[in-house]
Design goal:
Number of domains: 2
CATH class of the largest domain: Alpha Beta
Oligomer: single chain
Strand order of the largest sheet: 2-3-1-4-5-6-7
Radius of gyration: 21 Å
Helix content: 25-40%
Number of helices: 8
Shape: globular
CATH topology of the largest domain: Rossmann fold
Order of helices and strands: EEEEEHEEHEHEEHEHEHHH
């Protein structure tokens, strides 16, 4: 049994001892040959999960003799817990939006100094690959694995946010406005949505905004390569929704045919497609077996814990 530590720049994960424990049927983060213990002080392997490296030291001047050390001057070795380089995994999770591409390239360059394996969902990563699956339902693994489809009582939902810091985010919000103005009945949920959104509110558990619906709009922030796919798709399928998906081609490689529908575009054509699909639950019933198959693929194969387990077997 190998212990896996984790470090991330996501603030919510910094002190989370039970990270990913809901993604295994075993207690305390055990999956096959590994145990995920994110805060372990002496792990066998270390997963750097969307970790932002401190900025390189600037050229020292005489003024630095009088300044207090800054966070940017922290030595990266202090984060590595004495794990050797060949057992440190770097996974970059965020999409390669135009606004952050150069930042990602610098992160990969820095990661290669300290990590034996460096990967991300873009072509310029040292090892281009899809991001293994995590999900954001509070249900136990056993519950998700064994449950039948929940009662479906509503047509379609969309869980999103009001983030608008990139062109892709603004395109998504523009599409939301057009969809809302079309009069098609879709229930919107999410954080920090603009005041003009007729929102059903924020959710502490995404399950409640997905499980009662036949369809869910799963719209990625990025669709421009063959690698990027996110929890938007996994969450919808695990809640037994038929996703109406807008994203790149990675999903076609990873999931069985028929387990999701392709939204053709974020414009009038896309709105017409949504209107046609959600007019009845027929598509959900037709694709129900494909949804069931996709759920098992997500839980047992694409699961990040399973990916780490396979990595440990390969590199131990």
């Amino acid at each position: 049994m190998k212990t896996i530590g984790m470090i991330s720049s996501y603030h919510a994960l910094e002190k989370q001892a039970d990270w990913l424990w809901q993604q295994t049927p075993q207690p305390f983060g055990v999956w096959k040959n590994i145990q995920m213990r994110s805060l372990a002080s002496k792990p066998d392997f270390l997963l750097m999960y969307q970790f932002n490296f401190p900025k390189p030291n600037h050229k020292k001047s005489w003024l630095d003799n009088f300044r207090k050390p800054q966070n940017s001057q922290i030595k990266i070795e202090s984060f590595l817990r004495n794990v050797p380089k060949d057992k440190i995994i770097y996974l970059l999770r965020e999409p390669p939006l135009d606004e952050v591409v150069e930042k990602h390239k610098l992160a990969y360059k820095e990661a290669q100094k300290y990590c034996g394996y460096v990967s991300g969902p873009d072509d310029f990563a040292p090892t281009p690959d899809y991001m293994p699956a995590i999900w954001y339902h509070a249900n136990s693994f056993r519950d998700l694995n064994e449950m039948p489809p929940p009662a479906k009582t509503s047509n379609c939902s969309w869980i999103t946010s009001g983030i608008n810091r990139t062109a892709n985010h603004r395109q998504r919000l523009d599409f939301l406005k057009s969809l809302q103005n079309s009069g098609i009945i879709v229930d919107f949920y999410g954080r920090d949505l603009p005041n003009w959104v007729k929102s059903s509110g924020e959710l502490s558990n995404k399950w409640y905004g997905m499980a009662p619906y036949y369809y869910n709009l799963a719209i990625e922030n990025y669709s421009g390569n063959n690698w990027y796919v996110s929890e938007k798709l996994w969450d919808a399928l695990l809640a037994w929704c038929l996703p109406i998906y807008y994203g790149g081609s990675a999903a076609d490689k990873l999931l069985p045919p028929g387990s999701f529908l392709r939204l053709p575009s974020l414009d009038e054509k896309g709105i017409a497609y949504i209107q046609e699909v959600i007019a009845s639950p027929d598509a959900w019933y037709i694709q129900k077996e494909a949804i069931a198959e996709a759920r098992q693929v997500i839980l047992h194969k694409l699961n990040l814990l399973n990916w780490v387990s396979d990595f440990v077997i390969k590199f131990s």
